[in-house]
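Field notebook, page 231. I keep forgetting to write these up properly, so this time I am using the form the group agreed on. The chain and the ligand, nickel (II) ion, are recorded exactly as supplied. Prediction of the bound pose follows.
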Amino acid sequence: MSEHPPEHPPVQRPQAEPVTHIDDERFRVTEWRFAPGAETGWHRHGHDYVIVPLTDGTLGLDLAGGGRAEAALTQGLPYSRRVGVEHNVTNAGPAPLSFLEVEVVDDVRDQARLAVMARLMDCFNARDLDGLMGCMSADPAFRGSAGPLAEGVIHQGQAAVRASYAALFDAFPRAAWLEGAHHIAGETGFSTWRFQGTDAAGSEVDVRGCDIFRFEGDLIAVKDSYRKARS
Ligand code: NI
């Protein structure tokens, strides 16, 4: 949860007490303990989340639109909400209450990696070498689809990858990567596309293909390319 500035002078209420149980790359699990009348303060949820009530109780909810609602908590009966919920939560009942908040926190990393895959394709279409290398990690590899190896051809390191991208632009004075679709699963991403281009000899190429990516952080460490072989 992130801080949200109050739009009105805050009422003096005790603060709910957060206890972090799990905080790793995929999950954050926080136990929230509320004395009667205690509040979380205004916050916006940055991730999808599940609430697991540890007690029965009644939540008072100040809502972003200015309204107020109450919700009954039943011990052990969970509910889920999506990213973007904005509210201040209070204990509206006479007894202490608590719940576990389970947040899925790797959605932000997935979105960043999907954005890098989309940007890489945009940079290929713009023939933007600096932009392309800005999507690659410090020591990237590019495995081209055609070459003498089982892997096709391997270009290792920033300079070699940059030179191979430049050579591709030289080989295809006209080149377009179309119909891009991007997916992410953990450290692995893949993009599908249709390549249409004209090579330096004037021959037309129109072929579907894909890239399988391995990520380091938000950047591409390996770009492994595959194309259909037309016959
Ligand atoms: Ni909340």
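OBSERVATIONS:
- The helical segments are 107-126, 129-134, 158-171.
- The chain has three helices and 16 strands.
FOLLOW-UP: compare against the apo run.
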